Amino acid sequence: MTVRDPRLGSQAVDAVVLDIEGTTSATGFVVDVLYPYSRSRFAALLAERGDDPEVARAVAQVRELTGDPDADAAAVEKALNTWLDEDRKATPLKTLQGIIWSEGFARGDLVSHFYDDVVPRLRAWHAAGVRLYVYSSGSVAAQRAWFTNSPEGDLTSLVSGLYDTENAGPKQEPESYRRIAESTGIEPARLLFLSDRPGELDAARAAGWRTVGVRRPGEPYYEQGVGDHAQAGTFDEITITTSGSST
To answer: pLDDT tens, 18-45?
Structure first.
């Protein structure tokens, strides 16, 4: 795998793990389209489906995080909106957003966004035998809906697994990446993580992964850069070598 960095050499990787916001897709789409969509539907979800096991579990997590075990639906909604304003990666917020977004995608209200360079490279890597995974702060349900309802159709056949802050852990903790490596059965040194956030790249590298920072103009972390990680402006700049091919 070579990406503008001679330190990486041409060693093969077996899998690529993808961040979504700022990496495969525009953060602006999430903030400007998906966030308002979920905000307008939190109250109805809590009122109409509060007894659903997934919703009830998320509500219990909100109460635990806010330190208010008796918080009613209005208080829970207020906490969710506050976290949304702060762009806080709280697991119950992401769970409830995922439910809302999944239903919105299924109804045709929403279509996901991918940068133009992404889907062709994902298809090429997949065809070359590279396994693809997603690790996002958005819930697994939201990730599945995102890849199912892309402008180019259903992309889920390209993806071998989905990870979020609930089944893997926080994205800036090395232990989360160790869990993913163990789950995939792939040696950490043969996993490549693509993200726009330096803290996530640092955590992945601390767990023994290879890393590439994706820097796209206009994204929130563009000016900050990606530290001393290899970097690419588009997926077209990332060359992955497998045991039998190069893409």
So the answer is: 999 999 999 999 999 999 999 999 999 9
